[in-house]
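Dear Dr. H.,

I hope your travels went smoothly. While you were away I took the liberty of generating a structure for the chain from your last submission, since the lab meeting agenda had it listed for discussion. I wanted you to have the full record in hand beforehand rather than looking at slides cold. The sequence, exactly as received, is reproduced here:
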Amino acid sequence: MEYSIGKAAGLVTGIIVGLIICVVLFKFINRNRKMKTEYDERQKAARGMAYMYAFWSAMIATAIIMVLDSAGIALASSFTKGAFIIYVGIIVHISYSIFNDAYYGINTNKKRFVIVCLIAGLCNLLAVIGSIKGGVLIQDGIISDAGTNLLCVIMLFTMAIELIIKERIDSKKAVETESED
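The corresponding predicted structure, in token form, is as follows:
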């Protein structure tokens, strides 16, 4: 795929707009309306481990992409391959954080967070459906840049499933604790 100055400018503009939206959303998600999510000491330690696992997962994903590229196996555009590496790290970080009670901050409004994630997931799903209908998801036999929306949908779907599983685990533990008392 060929990139132009216009496409690069559009990408940079999209990233800047996305970051501004993230600032607004963080303030919406957090109960105290601060952009920064607050974590207690135990959560900070668990998140540190999550970052470490995410880093090494991203390194492994990078190595896999490099081996595939060296073998001449092209599965996706360069942009989508780069996004894949990032999303692998993000998913590992999210997963570890969820199952170690370090995902939600102490100032996070869980309902607002879930609503924002659902809206983001639906927007990305609509983009995926649009790229499939428009015949641009796969171009020249490889997943195009539009594959980044698919990666985002996979990430949000994975997160949703994990949050549901974690919620059920926690509610089951709460019921067991009540019955012991």
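Two observations you may find useful: Strands lie at 138-139, 142-143. The CA atoms of residues 84 and 97 lie 20 Å apart.

With kind regards,
E. W.
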